[in-house]
Amino acid sequence: MGIQKPAWLEALYTQKFFAGCSYHETAKKNEKNICCLDCCISICPHCLPSHRFHKLLQIRRYVYHDVVRLEDLQKLIDCKNVQAYTINSAKVVFIKKRPQNRQFKGSGNNCTSCDRSLQEPYIHCSLGCKVDYLLKLNKDLSPFLKKCNSLQLSPDFLVPLSDTGDEEMTSDQTNPHSTIVDCDDPMSSSSSGSSGSENMSMSMNMGYRHHEIVRKKRSGLNYASLCGRSAHKVSDEDMASSMISRRKRIPHRSPLC
């Protein structure tokens, strides 16, 4: 007797996708949108380290139904005569049957299992419909199954960052030094001659401009910091100098005649 349904195909029908992962309840983006074909279970992106050497199939959503990419599914089973749909420039195939609200059978092509109206020359609206048709007709799926040794996720699959502040670490790594640190670095030690003097003068100019900007910011009164009594307190001399700087000039009295 031939193979009726392999274990991975049964998992596509029985496993629940796009539900929260019980192992990563507190993690962000923990929806189970991956099917591990070796373990025959649904996993979330945070479970990938434990299944990195297994055959993985990404599950997608299209009009509230589970779909898979036709390119990936063709590596596992013959998808001939199954109608495919295009989402995000990729052809996808529905996994399960889609029951219709009303019984309507058009004059054109219809699905072999659910009588859904299809385009020419397709005769199956989903993978489940074709499997049921083949089992009813041949009672054997062996001629239609393909040997697949490895199946990895598509390049457009996004692995979410962990909740340990990886986003902040990434931004710091892209620009690990601030402007103040760059100005204080002894750039002349890594270069010599004219290039070293030019770098030193450039760093001094940058430091002077940065110092001038800071002085300008400090020259104006920050009422929010004064009212809130922040950690950076303004002294009486700074307040007096800032008040004087806001005035155009010191008025002079006219001479007595």
TrEMBL record:
Classification via InterPro entries: PLATZ
Which parts of this chain are annotated as the region Disordered? Answer: 162-202, 236-257
Q: Where is the composition biased (Low complexity)?
A: 187-202
Biased composition, class Basic residues, residue ranges: 245-257
What's the name of the protein? Answer: B box-type domain-containing protein
